[in-house]
């Protein structure tokens, strides 16, 4: 299992923002006291802080079966056997995000989260692996699982490892169909 630590620069920036918002909350409490208006303002600022925590990536681990993304409030596990396909969005030369389209249950069949058509998981894997055909799928990127590889150290190595491991799993899926 390989482990990729979060970039200290990204963690430090979000950490400073959280500390500043915490200081604002404490300052409001000390200066005004607690009443319904200050309680509402504190709740709003706390709501904003929760979104900052969602953006922090402490580390990402990869082995032959799964990718685990560790964040301050939990971890997300994505199994390679559940990924139909991935797309890489390059924000600039060094920053990128991997969008992983994973299995979901639809009644008795398994579909793909983020594909609007009623197509089974196996059919999507077949369509994606036929490189000679035009791929005509209605894709919703908001539904895909995001792996923010640019927020960890050695992001290019992590991106290549995820994509090569996924390629091996897709070959196994195609052989079992």
Q: Brief description of this entry?
A:
This protein has 177 residues and is α+β, with helices and mostly antiparallel strands. It has helices spanning 8-32, 36-55, 121-129, 155-176, and strands spanning 2-5, 59-62, 66-71, 74-79, 83-90, 96-106, 109-112, 145-147.
How would you characterize this protein structure?
The chain is an alpha+beta fold. It folds into two domains: 2-55; 60-176, no CATH class. It has four helices and eight strands. A hairpin with a 5-residue loop joins strand 5 and strand 6. Helix 1 (8-32) packs antiparallel against helix 2 (36-55). The longest helix is centred in the N-terminal third of the chain and has 25 residues, at 8-32. The radius of gyration is 20 Å and the shape is elongated. The two termini are 29 Å apart. The relative contact order is 0.15.
In percent, how much strand structure appears in the residues? 25-35%
How many domains? The number is: 2
User: What order do the helices and strands follow?
Assistant: EHHEEEEEEHEH
Q: How many distinct helices?
A: 4
Mean pLDDT equals 83
Query: Would you identify the regions where 5 or more consecutive residues have pLDDT less than 50?
Result: none
- Strand arrangement, major sheet: 1-2-3-4
CA-atom Rg in angstroms: 20 Å
Summarize the biggest pleated sheet.
4 strands, antiparallel
Content-based structural category: alpha+beta
What is the 3D shape? elongated
Distance between the termini: 29 Å
Number of strands: 8
Task: Tell me the helix content.
Answer: 40-55%
């Amino acid at each position: 299992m390989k482990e990729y630590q979060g970039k200290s620069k990204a963690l430090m920036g979000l950490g400073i923002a959280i500390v500043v918002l915490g200081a604002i909350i404490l300052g409001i409490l000390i200066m005004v006291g607690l009443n319904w208006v200050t309680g509402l303002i504190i709740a709003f600022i706390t709501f904003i802080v929760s979104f900052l925590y969602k953006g922090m990536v402490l580390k990402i681990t990869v082995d032959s079966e799964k990718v685990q993304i560790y964040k301050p409030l939990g971890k997300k596990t994505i199994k390679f056997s559940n990924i139909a396909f991935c797309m890489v969005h390059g924000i600039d030369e060094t920053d990128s995000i991997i969008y992983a389209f994973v299995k979901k249950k639809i009644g008795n069949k398994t579909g793909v989260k983020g594909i609007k058509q009623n197509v089974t998981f196996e059919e999507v894997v077949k369509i994606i692996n036929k490189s000679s055909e035009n791929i005509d799928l209605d894709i919703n990127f908001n539904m895909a699982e995001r792996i923010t590889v640019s927020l960890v150290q050695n992001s290019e190595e992590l991106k290549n490892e995820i994509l090569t491991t996924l390629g091996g799993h897709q070959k196994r899926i195609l052989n079992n169909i």
